[in-house]
Each structure stands twice: as C-alpha cells, then as structure tokens.
Specification:
It is a single chain. By secondary structure, the protein is an all-beta fold. Among the domains are: 1-37, no CATH class; 53-81 and 112-149. The protein is built from no helices and 10 strands. The strands form 2 sheets. Strands 1-2-3-4-10 form a 5-stranded mixed β-sheet, with no helix packed on it. A hairpin with a 2-residue loop joins strand 8 (129-136) and strand 9 (139-144). The protein is flat, with a radius of gyration of 30 Å.
Length: 192
Amino acid sequence: MRVDFGNTTMITDPAAQKGILLDHVKKEALTVHMPQGPQMTPPALPPGVLPTGAVPPQVVELGKALIEGHEVEGKQFTFQPPNMPKMPSMPQKPSLPQVPGMPAAPQMPQAPQMPTVAEVWTSTKTKLPVLTKVTGPFGQQICQCKVSETAPPPPAAFEIPPDYKQVKMPTPVKAPALQPPQIHRPTLPHLG
C-alpha cells in the first residue's frame, strides 16, 4: 500500500513485513521492519490493565461471507460498559412540611448501560476491513469500503527511487547513569 501526504510517502508491504518512508525534499528513504499485518482481534491484556469494573470484550466468530463479491471473515466484539461507581449520598436537609400540590424533587438520571457492539468484516485477501458496524448508546455508525476495479499501479511506485539515499534510523541518545548522592558527615571529637 502506498500513502502520499505532502512531501512524504509511506509504502507498506505486509508480506515482506517492511515499511519504506520516502522524504521527497531530502530525497531520502528510511526502511523499517513492521510486525505481522493488521489484526482485527484485540490483543489479550495482562491482568490489572483494564480499569476497575471494566469487562474484557466478548468476541464471536461470524464466519465467512461475500460483500460485493469479495470473500470476508466476520467478528463481533461486544464491549460492556464498566460498572459505575456508587454516588455518595446527598446530605439531608431539614424536613419541611410538604406543600399540597407541590411536585417532588426530580430524581438523578441513570447512565445508560447499553453495551457497544462492533461487527467487523475483513477481506480474506487484503486483510483490511471492508465493512464495520458499531452500535452503542450513541446510535449506529457504518463504514463500508467500496472496492473499485482499476488498472494495477506500476511496480516502480512501490520501490525506492534510484536517486534517493538510503538512511538508517537514528540511534537514540543514551542518558548518563545517575550516581547516588554522596553524603559527607562531619566527624565530632569524642568527649569522654
């Protein structure tokens, strides 16, 4: 995949697990190693990472289907809202006689406890999401990628131009080690 933005181009090749960053002003190319292609499964979280009261998402395999002639695999992720902390009790005011016909004080509104459900359909060929539906307390959001038939781009568009200089990732500057403070204590003459 090639993405051009301003004077920079990012070329990614998930099969080769590499990315190339082209700087068109300096005519430099930086090649970096990339992890395995995009995964639509949330990573397993170690214990204690989720906030208190948060529930890990439930994942349901939806199987394979066809969307506009493209084979896709579906997964459904259900995110439960965290348990809301209990509100502290309101201080009680002195009891006053109820005036006839006067409405009672309104109750505090309850937060919606509706889960958020994300349905993701990923292309088996490109490993990119083709259709995503997210439903939650905010309503429903649908994102669908339309695949159009175009001529294949020239292979040279995914290579480092011959007049570009290959650069390496700058090495991080190592901070000097901190030495523990030295404490000097005056010696007192022994009186005895």
